[in-house]
Amino acid sequence: MEAVEVHAVEAHGVTKSFGAVRAVDGLGLRLDRGRTVALLGPNGAGKSTLISMILGLRTPDTGTVRVLGGSPERAVRAGRVGAMPQTGRLIGGVTVRELVGFVQRAHASVARGPMPSTAELMDIARISDLAGRRADGLSGGQAQRVRFALAVAGAPDLIVLDEPTAALDIESRHELWVAIRACAERGATVLFSTHYLEEADAEADRIVVVDRGRVVADGTSDEIKRRVPGRTVSVDASVLPDPSGLPGVLSSEVDGRRVRLHTTDADATVLALAAAGAVRDLEVTGASLEQAFLTLTHSAPAGTETPEAVR
Ligand SMILES: Nc1ncnc2c1ncn2[C@@H]1O[C@H](COP(=O)(O)OP(=O)(O)OP(=O)(O)O)[C@@H](O)[C@H]1O
Fold it and tell me: What are the transmembrane regions (predicted)?
């Protein structure tokens, strides 16, 4: 009997090993439809392996992965999943318009509803100005937008992007994100892996942090930042007394004319700074996503239980 289709992706107890390396280790995950989800994790955390199982390219050793209520293979075959590989040359001898049109026609046979025209698709992917260019003669950023257009040519429900902006300059990253957002706004679920934490912070509704093959945090960016105790108190460096004598302060760093104090007790630190007359340009902030990420992915010794997910 067909399963009730609720989640874009559902993974239960998934493991995958390569020889002695356990790339994915009892991972569980549920992605609601229509969200944009970032997959974060240090090198070797298991992100690409997980993505390859979501795309049906690898089979879990144990556990199950379901995509849009069925097997990953079935969702992919039905044209409901669009994926963009990390790299790959575009074929030569054709224009961008011909290539996009060809891939779109190939999808038309399994289309479940109206698909955007080739012109609309090229507009979404921000490649209209490249329509007449040879597909094998593009810059890295241009080629990546064409790959994105090919990934979404069949108007997929789930778009899976493995490090989509790796090696792109800031302008190309921005352009690609405009395109990805346009698809998300049309209702697609977007799952992307990245090493750019600011990208996850800015673009994702939800962030899943993976370390050593397991989910170690799962929530909004703010929820994940709140997982890390402590605050950062920053003041003008010229008025600061010796930070080592301040209550609560674990470490400090100078950034231009400001000093950032990482403290376990922001109130006590601020009171001591005030008593020393050193509160010029005072600012108190929570942990950054980078601090949270580093804490979450380096604090748990190998083999310990997965910490409670945020939700
Ligand atoms: N085909 C393979 N053969 C052997 N080991 C592999 C293979 N694919 C992945 N691994 C190993 O599995 C672990 C997880 O790799 P994976 O590529 O999934 O991590 P990742 O989080 O995507 O890393 P990165 O951010 O560096 O891309 C690593 O230790 C990696 O060396």
Answer: none
